[in-house]
Write a structure and sequence with these properties.
4-stranded antiparallel sheet, alpha/beta, 298 residues, 35% helix, 29% strand, 6-stranded mixed sheet, Alpha-Beta Plaits, Rossmann fold, single chain
Length: 298
């Protein structure tokens, strides 16, 4: 129900190959994070999905239907929100969302959930900050109660407070069964709400996986501050990191408790004193970098 399916997509710009058989699924009641380097084709995929471009081979469907069949049930928020500068916030809301009337309930919703108060919304949009434009664009998209929602770089220009407001709205939509796809490079913020990640690379889907499963399978890192780091067996160490006090920690990948015990026994055997010890779980950004690094070696 409500799945967005990209199937065997091929697409080229003149002189540049973008997709060469790329496929992935974005399930309903889920936020799917579409990730990849700049220029890999994330924004191009949005244009293909919304009918602004057409793939040479393949298809993008919405629960089996084409974009023309579900256009009234999809909302898109671009990285540069299309706001009419010479219209007020309220006028933009009416023009872009399709609603016919802004009543007191709507005004309260804008103020409470998007921090778009009555005083601001009466002003012309040319005076809006980038963050205010983004919040207005998200409000426009969500007021349409879409079944499908696509957001391109939604964290750009948003302070943490604004992102918290939008994050809550997105989570409420997921609970109602909406299918959401988000692009961007802010792994920390998007990783807070995404359940699935799709990594694009070289025109294909490099990885498609539930984020919770990825974190379970990925290495955790044991960080140690010791008195004789050069005596630690190099086969264990992956890197050195420095903290704010310029102290060098050795970084060792570990999977389970038994590995930690083995390493601590090895340090004790070599009479190496431990001044600090912590185990860090991998962030989504760490996992992404690890996957990309593996792909370069293969």
């Amino acid at each position: 129900m409500g799945t967005i399916e990209s199937k065997n997509i091929f697409f080229d710009y003149p002189g540049k190959n973008i997709f060469r058989g790329m496929s992935f699924n974005a399930p309903s009641s889920c936020i799917t994070y579409l990730a990849g380097e700049n220029g890999i084709g994330k924004t191009t995929w949005i244009k293909l999905a919304t009918g602004r471009l057409t793939p040479s081979i393949g298809s993008i469907t919405f629960d089996g239907k084409t974009i023309s069949q579900i256009r009234d049930r999809i909302s898109v928020v671009l990285d540069e929100p299309p706001v009419y500068d010479d219209l007020s916030g309220y006028e933009n809301l009416i023009a872009l969302s399709g609603i016919k009337k802004i009543d007191n309930e709507c005004k309260l919703n804008l103020d409470k959930n998007y921090k778009l108060d009555h005083f601001l919304m009466k002003k012309k949009a040319k005076g809006f900050s980038l963050g205010q434009r983004h919040r207005l664009a998200v409000a426009v998209a969500l007021l349409r109660n879409p079944q499908y929602l696509i957001l391109d770089e939604p964290t750009i220009g948003l302070d943490p407070f604004s992102w918290d407001l939008i994050k809550k709205q997105l989570q409420d939509m997921v609970n109602k069964g909406t299918t959401i796809i988000i692009t961007g490079h802010d792994f920390e913020q998007i990783g807070e709400i995404a359940s699935k990640i799709v990594i694009l690379h070289n025109g294909l889907t490099l990885l498609e996986e539930d984020i919770s499963k990825l974190k379970t399978k990925s290495n955790r890192y044991l960080e140690l501050l010791v008195d004789k780091p050069d005596f630690v067996l190099k086969e264990y160490i992956t890197s050195y990191i420095k903290n704010k006090k310029n102290q060098s920690y050795i970084c060792i990948p570990v999977i389970g408790e038994n590995e930690v015990k083995t390493i601590l026994k090895m340090l004790n055997k070599h009479s190496i004193s431990i001044y600090d010890l912590k185990i860090n779980n991998p962030t989504l950004k760490d996992i992404y970098k690890e996957i990309r690094q593996k792909s370069k070696l293969e």
